[in-house]
Design goal:
By secondary structure, this protein is α/β, with parallel strands linked by helices. The chain has a single domain, classed as P-loop containing nucleotide triphosphate hydrolases (Rossmann fold). It has an eight-stranded mixed sheet, with helices on both faces. Strands 2-1-4-5 form a four-stranded antiparallel sheet.
Length: about 325
């Protein structure tokens, strides 16, 4: 990232909770990060870490009930999205900020054709007539690799495979060339060839719109390494580490980040029968430890980790880590 890049989006102390009977599930619990103009920011972590809820919160798509944004600010071009009326948010969704959802079958309306749903984007946000919207929709389907796109415009979601439905969602999200694209596992259902094409298309459209940015939510650290400028690592609804992508892969600080990277297969390592793993599983949301959310799976656990939650510390001008190992250290030491 360029040092003089401006902030496109600022998330400040975001807390998104869900009511579960008589309890409150803290899915996102005090998240702070920025997205800069022209940046691709990776948001990584295991399932249940709060990544998707963070993305949905930006667009205020949390179903209420049971979910609600308890507090925080989401500043887009300096304007707090949480203060906007519903009518203003509708104008921003799909045009200025788009999202590729993780589950395409539940995001597409089963009673409308694919063409109808694509054309709605152009007619609502760009005031196009039906004929022009149809042609643009065909172009978008062709761009994401749908064969015979003109004919497939008349088909319904159930007539598309899972991967093709995902490509339709990508076409919708990219139609208006948004300033911010939130991509939630955008290539999960795609084979590696189409995956590469879709990632290239996302990056191409980002470059076509001046100062556009992408928030890439993914489990695939290989995709992160290839496409992102910075990485935010989440666990237990909290940010555990923020770092430039090169620094994160070559010098991970947080024990959780270290565990994620060690579990990746690497050609430069000696052959191993089993890859290293992080012990245990992500706890249910009501059963995270009281102190550090990762302490029950951490190889470096100290006594205070169980009762005192560490702060997100700035260990260098462009790196932050939430770990007791780095308290009192300006630049930190390696926990490996």
């Amino acid at each position: 990232m360029e040092s003089n890049a401006k902030k496109l989006l600022e998330i400040q102390s975001l807390r998104t909770y869900f009511r579960v009977e008589d309890r409150i599930a803290k899915a996102v619990d005090g998240v702070d990060f920025d997205i800069y103009e022209g940046e691709t920011l990776g948001l990584v972590g295991e399932s249940g870490s709060g990544k998707s809820v963070t993305g949905l919160s930006i667009l205020r798509l949390i179903p209420n009930p049971p979910g609600f944004i308890k507090e925080g600010n989401i500043l887009f071009h300096g304007k707090n999205l949480l203060d906007l009326p519903y009518s203003e948010m509708r104008k921003i969704r799909g045009k200025e900020i788009s999202m590729i959802f993780q589950e395409p079958m539940t995001s597409l309306n089963p009673v409308f054709s694919i063409g109808y749903q694509l054309m709605e984007v152009f007619k609502f946000h760009q005031n196009m007539e039906k004929e022009e919207a149809f042609e643009r929709s065909v172009e978008m389907l062709e761009l994401v690799g749908i064969p015979d796109p003109r004919k497939r415009m008349n088909d319904y979601p159930h007539q598309y495979s899972g991967g093709m439905r995902q490509r339709v969602m990508i076409a919708m999200a990219l139609s208006c060339k948004p300033s911010l694209l939130i991509a939630d596992e955008p290539t999960t259902a795609l084979d590696v060839t189409i995956q590469a094409q879709v990632l290239d298309l996302m990056m191409k459209i980002k470059k076509e719109k001046v100062n556009a940015a992408i928030l890439l939510i993914t489990h695939d650290l290989g995709v992160v390494a290839e496409t992102c400028h910075r990485v935010v690592v989440m666990y237990g609804g909290k940010i555990q580490e923020i770092a430039p992508v090169h620094d994160l892969f070559h010098d991970p600080k947080h024990p959780y980040t270290i565990g994620l990277l060690k579990s990746l297969p690497r050609p430069d390592r000696a052959r191993q029968d089993r890859l290293p793993t992080i012990p245990g599983m992500v706890p249910e949301i009501f059963h995270f430890p009281k102190g550090c959310k990762f302490c029950n799976r951490c190889d470096f656990k100290m006594e205070k980790c169980e009762t005192i939650e560490p702060e997100l510390l700035e260990v260098s001008p462009d790196r932050k880590v939430r770990c007791h190992l780095f308290e009192g250290q300006k630049h930190g030491t390696d926990a490996k």
